[in-house]
Design a protein that fits this description.
single chain, alpha/beta, Rossmann fold, 2 domains, eight-stranded mixed sheet, 10 helices, 11 strands, 44% helix, 20% strand
Length: 272
């Protein structure tokens, strides 16, 4: 059985949907995993907590599944150090995190909407995966920045990837990914509209409009693949087809040269 460590800030429905998807696969399809704990960087009794209600629902869900809930409030933790040295604060917070989860051994960590940077030592100690909303050779940045860069480059494909957390933060090697075309049926008229607007208004003005149909279409098709990609990635590990050693991905024949393409599995889940 694959033991998962689940790290989430619990900000809203997305966090709940990720957890529910894995638990549904476990209960309905026998996905061979156990979530050893859910770690949250809020206690949810902090002042100035705009997501308190959403997080309360998430905490209730975790407890309802019988999963240990572990919290270390980032807002309460060493505010003196946060004010003077945020790098040192991150290292100290990481030490507190590792101590808090130490009673719950796990094989693979999943950052499922976790909104703090992991410190270097935690990245070295644990094998943890994070989602990035782009192909392995695609743009860096937020999902919004990724999509605008794809539009500016007249790109043909978009996707999402799971990468390993390392000391280089968002630069860890991609382990799994899925991709899909953003040209052709359903897209070409939207590209035509976007190009016409960019020619008339300039790209910098158009990129302020997140209601641009092309922008929305790329986001929708990418977002609906993110959850299946996470679940498919977990399944590959749970069923023993892949493992991580020394921060590299291996299959049964040895080290894998490059990320593992799960596009077919994700598309089957979506009925594409």
């Amino acid at each position: 059985m694959l033991r998962l460590g689940w790290f989430s800030t619990g900000r809203g429905p997305g966090s709940r949907n990720l957890l529910k998807a894995v638990m549904d696969k476990k209960e309905q399809e026998g996905l061979d995993v156990e979530i050893s704990f859910v770690f949250c960087n809020w206690d949810n009794d902090e002042e100035d907590n705009p997501k308190r209600d959403q997080r309360a629902v998430f905490f209730d869900m975790v407890r309802g599944y019988g999963i240990p809930l572990v919290t270390v409030s980032w807002k309460k933790f060493r505010p003196d150090l946060w004010a003077s040295d945020q790098t040192a604060w991150r290292d100290e917070y990481g030490r507190a995190l590792r101590e808090a989860v130490s009673p719950y051994p796990f094989d693979l960590g999943i950052l499922a909407g976790y909104m703090l940077w992991m410190d270097d030592e935690t990245c070295r100690c644990f094998d943890m995966l994070n989602l990035h909303p782009a192909l392995p050779d695609g743009p860096k940045g937020t999902w919004q920045e990724v999509i605008w860069q794809l539009i500016s480059e007249d790109a043909d494909r978009q996707g999402a990837m799971m990468h390993i957390c390392t000391e280089d933060w968002d630069r860890g090697a991609a382990l799994t990914y899925c991709g899909f075309p953003i040209k052709g049926e359903g897209y070409d008229p939207l590209w035509g509209e976007a190009r016409a607007r960019i020619a008339a208004e300039g790209f910098d003005n158009v990129r302020k409009d997140q209601e641009l149909p092309l922008f929305k279409k790329i986001r929708e098709d990418g977002a609906r693949r993110e959850l299946p990609l996470i679940v498919s990635t977990i399944r590959e590990f749970a069923e023993g087809r892949v493992t991580i050693r020394d921060k590299r991905l291996y299959d049964r024949d040895g080290p894998i040269d490059g990320p593992y393409d799960l596009s077919a599995q994700v598309d089957r889940t979506l009925g594409v």
